[in-house]
Amino acid sequence: MPHVPAPRGRGSVGLNRREFGKAAAVAAVAGADASAADDDLAHRQREFLRPLLYTRQDLDAWLAGKAFPFSRYDAELGYLHVDRDFKEGQDGAVCTYRYDRLGARRPIAYVDRPCRINTYGNSFTSCEQVSDGETWQEVLAAHLGEPIRNYGIGGYSVYQAYLRMRREEKRAPARYVIFNIFDDDHYRSLHGWQRLRFGVNRKSTNQPVPHVKADPDAGTFTECANPCPTPESLYQLCDLDAAWRLIKDDYLLNRYVQRRLARDRGDKTVPGSDFDDPQLTRVALFASMRIIDKVEDFAAERKCTVLYLLSYNPETVRRFLHSGKRFDQAFVDFLARRKLRYVDLLQAHAADFAQFKPDVAAYVKRYFIGHYSPLGNFFCAHALKPSLVSLLKPAPPAYAPNARPF
Predict the structure, then answer these.
(1) Which of 169, 249, 279, 384 has the greatest number of beta carbons closer than 10 A?
(2) 8 Å CB contact between 140 and 148
(3) 268-298 exposure pattern, b = at least 16 Cβ within 10 A, e = fewer
(4) How far is CA 313 from the centre of its chain?
């Protein structure tokens, strides 16, 4: 006869109810713990954002061109530069910044000749802290005998520089592009609001910006548009609730909140800077690699040639000269593996330093006043020159093969 299960008695049902009750209690505790953790994260995010909020008066003044004289609003890129005079140069000099009808920094040398070289990047491309005629582009242009456009914007990320290249190469295309990547730019590509990293000051509003999300473990890379694509949408960042809803999933916000929490708990291993944060650096460098893939794809479409320039802040140069170690070795290896043309200013400074007797601090002071000084821009130009001259076809006027010897 087939086996017929015995009917379940009340005792059996009671046991299942007890088991179910225990499981439900465990699930309830777990759910409560998760909810409490979510509430704690939201609270910590909001406390991080609170001192960064705009005031409506500040936004009104910036959008009207009456305050924060560093930039103006741009829906796609976040912002662009404006004409300005800042007393921030060497020995307290006033630096003059002017921009032409294309939005490039005012060219000085050989403006009557066609331009075939465009440059993109952040403030080490725009050349903050020197006047228009002192930039490394103008040093090179004067030497080569042809103009070089400067589309650099202070504070830009690798991703913003790529987006600006896409825009400007359609309006004023060049056969050659110099794409400058400053060391901090890798991290900047990950934030959707500059105030998360730059804080609050009266020079710049430090705007919301286009950015990327990247996961090297999953191999994913996602482009994110400016979270405030209209002037009106900026006002969300005046209200804590609205700002939190807009920014709460930002990778850098959450990384900084995690670091602050660990520091509050007495963790002595919390990185002192982004450069010392191996997890963050890995994500940032992976993101830059994917952006460079996109730069190369765009360059292939446009049939232009890209020369990458790796530039560094004075502290990174000091560290390298002391230790010989660099935070971005994986990125340099990537460029080499892809056989991309690049000029490494960290190695250029190391080779230059080897010829001097002063200590590292004295050497760095020779070229930097925060950004490059006029002498630093001269150094940059001539470190870049051999690679650029070998790239240009035909040769620039200064190196024309048919030039008269005297």
Answers:
(1) 384
(2) yes
(3) eebbeebbebeebbebbbbbbbbbbebbeeb
(4) 13
Cβ count near 105 (within 10 Å): 24
Please answer whether residues 61 and 67 qualify as being in contact, where contact means their C-beta atoms are separated by less than 8 angstroms.
yes
User: pLDDT tens, 336-357?
Assistant: 999 999 999 999 999 999 998 8
Q: State the chain's maximal CA–CA distance in angstroms.
A: 116
Task: Give residues with Cβ within 8 angstroms of 383, minimum separation 6.
Answer: 343, 345, 348
Q: How many Cβ atoms are within 10 Å of 366's Cβ, its own excluded? A: 15
3 has pLDDT over 60: no
Contacts of 100 (CB under 8 A, 6+ apart): 106, 107
Residues 22-47: tens digit of each pLDDT: 554 445 444 556 677 788 999 999 99
Residue with tokens 């949408």: 233
Which residues, other chains included, contact 145 with Cβ-Cβ below 8 Å and sequence gap of 6+? 110, 396, 397, 398
**8 A C-beta contact, residue 97 and residue 83:** yes
Quote the tokens at residue 251: 């990778």
Give the residue extent of every domain in the chain: 19-50, 53-399
- Assigned fold of 53-399: Rossmann fold (3.40.50)
Token code pair at residue 78: 């976040």
